[in-house]
## 1
Amino acid sequence: MATKPPLDPYITKPKVYLLGRQTVVREELSRFLDEEGVAFTTDAGAAAEVLAEIAGRTCYMSFGKGRKTNREYLDNILTSKHGSVLEHAVWSLLITGVSRSLTHELVRHRAGFGYSQLSQRYVDEGDARYVVPPLYQENDELRARWRQTIETLRKAYVELADSTAQYVQQKHPEMAPRDRRKWARQAARSILPNACETKIFVTGNSRSWRHFLEMRGSPHADTEIRLLAVEICRVLKNESPNIFPDVEIYDEADGMPAVRITHSKV
């Protein structure tokens, strides 16, 4: 069996994996409609769109009334900024190829999000990969100087982690090997740079995702997280064209893509 080539230790682009989307429990929806004596049909393609519409119609018991298509209904939600309805639509994304610097900013988005991130206490970062800042991807000389610094830090981390593990073993010979390694890594990680690649599992509702795209897809945002916002925008627009119809990817004057939203702060 052919072996896979080694991964490039230097990363230039994030990856986004869509791992979780919702489903509608049709039997329970039918039971609710029957018991309330109302009729409801929708042309929505995504369960998240169906649930957002049901949530909104529940507020006024407007099933079978008014706007006929899911797109028309959700367009009205967006223009009227009735954003709480969108909190019922949820997606889970696994994000890789991003730096610790990026996730320091990402996890500031608290409302409507849940996070699970790679632990540097339990995972050996001796063979970690590193994210090249977009600015250094433009200039070979600066990239070479940056890479030299990273390699120095990589070597220092490995040597420090090994020495620390030996010290912990001498100080606490009764400690289990797994715990010794954790103690050593949690101390040695203090010298790891922000460029160290991490992986993070993020679950968010569509109102929160819209806010993230608006804030971090902006040309005023840090470049790395801006490029991540563009990738997430592509995924979510494909998943739900009716919830993200006004979210657009465009090319900014600086030559890089950005995100803009017609209905701000829904």
## 2
Amino acid sequence: MRLNILHEDDSILVCVKPYGVPSQSDKTNSEDMISMLKLRIFERENRNEEPYLAAIHRLDRPVGGIMVFAKTKEAAANLSKQSEDGEMIKYYQAILTGELPNEEGVLKDYLLHDKQSNITKVVDKDTPDAKYAELAYEVLDVMETDKGILSYVLITLVTGRHHQIRVQMANRKCGIWGDTKYNPKFQKVKKQYQQIGLHASRLEFTHPVTGEHMVFKSEPEGKAFEVIELDEF
């Protein structure tokens, strides 16, 4: 698989994850980003030992877009802190099957992840193990189609919870296009890892060594985003 590397130096590696590829090793034993990138580094640098590489954040398997990886433990600690403190800014583009109540807004919920079923749901604040989730959105376009309304939305992720964007949007009756896990309009589809209308399109952070403000962009491609250019859905 050809890897789309946006930036690489001695401390970090930034690339675009294709949809359908796991961010890291999972129970399916499919080829994943960590394994592919480690192999690339190993072969290029002719190493004798396995290189260090850590994913600072993850993207769901059916989601494509920008990811940053740390090549040293020091860089991993720095970038992880930026992510936890909200200093790493993550933007997503999304196609929703529905219309949000306002042109822009902030969604705040408490989410609970069931590890056994790998499903996350919105719950009451006082639910044991519930985690606070927040995102901001801006509606870029709304389209009427013969199968309902589609909304093209820009999302800024404030917290990084399991399946957060997918769950919060589905809870507003505006599920992600193609999402067979959370969007009722697609739950009869059998393709488990098909592309969904969610793409990590912009990432901003401070370089852990140089202190430079880094900005990376990636425009979404594929069927999930072609629907916004069509008259039919």
